[in-house]
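Hey, can you fold this one?
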Amino acid sequence: MNARRRAGGATPRDGATNATPRKASRSGAAGRGASGGASSGASGFTDIVVAVVRDGDEVLVTRRSAGAHLGGFDEFPGGKREGDESLEAACVREVLEETGVAIEVVKLLAVSWFDGDGRRLALSFFTCRPTGERAPSVEAEQRRAARWIARRELANLRFPPANAAVVAQLLAEAPAS
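Sure. Predicted structure:
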């Protein structure tokens, strides 16, 4: 398994670190801007959006279904970008579909690549906030264990390896005041 990561407009390369990008544009190997393009560019990477939805010092998390890849792992809501939708629009749509919570995207938090297990993924992590009712839908609570947790509790959950740098970044933050 070879995980590739980048920040900003850098080209993915082995041994690169995952850092906070300077802007929300996506250039280089993925070959697409944040606001459009096909869900799989010339590089063959599929765009995946990941929403780090925050409200004060709480974070919205879900659990992958038992039969899915990495089943039983906890995760931030998100999924594949469809067609020509922007990464931000995909993020808003995915969170609403998965949790019933309406959100707005605040900023791009990090970008990383995963190339292994027959998957080539460009993961864009966005900081988001709820825009209305923050309670997940009953269906999301039952099917995906959608729930709000204290940020410090992230350390007690099992996240996919591609989320490790973002989880560590969140845990390193000072408590919200």
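The domain at 23-167 is CATH 3.90.79.10 (Nucleoside Triphosphate Pyrophosphohydrolase). Let me know if you want another pass with a different chain boundary.
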